[in-house]
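Task 17 of the worksheet. Students: predict the tertiary structure of the chain below and write it out as structure tokens. Keep your answer in the requested format; marks are given for formatting as well as content.
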Amino acid sequence: MRGVDQGGLYEVEAEDYHADPCPEPSLSNSLIAMVLSGAPRHAWQAHPQLNQNYRPSESKRLDLGTVAHKLLLDKGRDYHIIEANSYQTKAAQIARDTARELGKIPILVDDFALAQAMVRACHEQLADFPGAELAFDLAHGKTELGLFWQEPSGVWGRNLIDRLVTEAPTWECWDYKTTSRGADPSDPWFGAHFVEHGYDTQAAMQERGLFTLFPQLAGRLKFRFLFQETEEPYLISAIEPDHATMVIARKKVERAFAIWAHCLQHKKFPGYPRRIVPLRHAEYLANRWLERELEEDAFGLPTAEIPAALPAEEAEEIKPLKRKPGRPRKDETILDAG
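Model answer:
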């Protein structure tokens, strides 16, 4: 696509979106954690408009999720199947590197079969999933929409919406995620996982951009995430962030845009503080050690004692150090105080 000169929703190829077609460097969700980390220089490093040498991260794990995304949505980067079981052979490595040079996703033949099985299982489960039956039915809604808008400060924001279903009075934004850790939403770790991977700010970014373009949507937006496991039986779950999650996510996005605007205005993307910072001992580590001491005391375990001074008989056994080459004699001055 050509460059974006005004805010809106655009049908866009993933490559064009990630290259940032905005008139000025825009803030995307993938950069928010870097901007808020205390070192916005990380965001500069990962931005295609600011860092001309930027290359997106690539891995076999990411390739599987991206190909499954492509098969499910029928949009995204093209892929190239590598007729091999691993990348241990030179031929497979050359085929992989060639595919990447052509902008395609290399995927081993077995992994491609896995991605196909995941998508089949996803459709089978969605057919009997109240509230999500049409979410990934390509006959309804729009797929892979680039959301671009301009903030009151003048800086640009962008986000990529996997699926936007607008047929009901309430618009639904859906995003597809794959996970190797499990997709059980009742698992205690899942809430932390959701936030740590920036899915909360992704919803807040989409909300912010859509409200900027369509203020009349206030109160009529839903943000939902479809998670799928990468191991059989490839179970899925649907997540809708709660009110508390969205409140904090909005604050994060607001702060990130303020920092981004400041960095662009002053053309400075600082790293970590240029001062020596005292390290704070982690409270949970201190508590862990104190608990250990209490347990050992309860069992009467001996504690190590440091003697104030060596006993006289041990002190006599210590031999004086011999002078080595370059070692000053007693009468030599090492440092002249004057």
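Marker's comment: The radius of gyration is 29 Å. Residues 83 and 177 are 26 Å apart (CA to CA).
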